[in-house]
What does this fold into?
Amino acid sequence: MYFYAEMMGRIPCCDDNGLKKGPWTPEEDQKLIEHIQKHGHGSWRALPKAAGLNRCGKSCRLRWTNYLRPDIKRGKFSEEEEQIIINLHSVLGNKWSAIASNLPGRTDNEIKNFWNTHLKKKLLQMGIDPVTHRPRTDLNLLANLPQLLAAANYGNLMNPWVDSALRLQSDATQLAKVQLLHNLLQVLNTSTSPTPNMEAMNLFGTAPLREHQLYEFLRLNSQFEGLANGQVNFPLEGNQILSNLLNLEVPSDYQHTAISKEFTRHNDNNQLGTNSYVIPTANPPIPPLVSASPECSAVNQMENKINPNDMSNPSSTSTTFEAWGELMDDEGSDSYWKDIINQASSSPWPVTS
DNA sequence: AAGGTGACCAACCGCGCAACC
DNA sequence: TGGTTGCGCGGTTGGTCACCT
It folds into this structure.
């Protein structure tokens, strides 16, 4: 084998050379454990021979690091661990080893498996894209508000860091709904097209909607005060909300409601380098909801999430908002939203007026 | 009871990278 | 400096089990 290596360069670790593959037997485990306890693993390539195992070094290393290591924590993942994984994954992506380094006793392989079999599905059910950790942008999202509710209320908040991250996630979910509707209005009210999008008009009623209608709609359908304490209440089913949206009357004496004030949390010049999100308080032209922010490194993003100040200030900035800002900036063109509306116009929602 | 199906997870595979010679 | 080696990583596979029809 080593002669082969010298002559031909690197050889496959587990080539078809008579070495055993597949599940480990208790005897093999025992041999590996005893050898490592006595001598350490040293060179993994040399270990199997020294330990009397008919395995390749790589197989031994994997068996040790993923299963036999004494500090391995077996058993179900706690809710706290789940949240940590989700949060870290949103920052680190599929860097399983990096994620594992933050979860003592858990291996990258275990976390990877757990992610693929549980957490990915869970996030999808919540309407969150498990790759981007952004709310999914299709309008089916609105038809899945019960799941969004579950997302907003998910978890028993034990860890303050987790608490903060979850709260931000809830805010982001709520903001996403507002942003979605806001952009829909922008498209519907746009005058760039010589002919209005008739399908979209049919979807939302006859007259272009105005923003105060949107706010009234939001006031009727949600309790945004909840944003201050992380509780999100969106009590109506998606089709009912849409129905309410269609049935809105235009109050002639419309005044800015507490909602718009609640949402008008803006930092005029971003002196602190923080984000802000601003619900417009005037009729068109409609300003952007999400202001751009200085780019943050992954490390900074992590620090932001860990920063205890965030925990006492749920309206403070977050990478979630940044993500939404990017999303909306990237995809906020009229054509993008028109596409969504076109999709929605063929959706199975019951549109009653 | 038997076959089908999906979930779960241990293990394998191939690649990239850093250390070494 | 280029080739070799060892290791670690992320993606994938395949075996097992539980549940369903």
Remarks:
- The two ends of chain A are 78 Å apart (CA to CA).
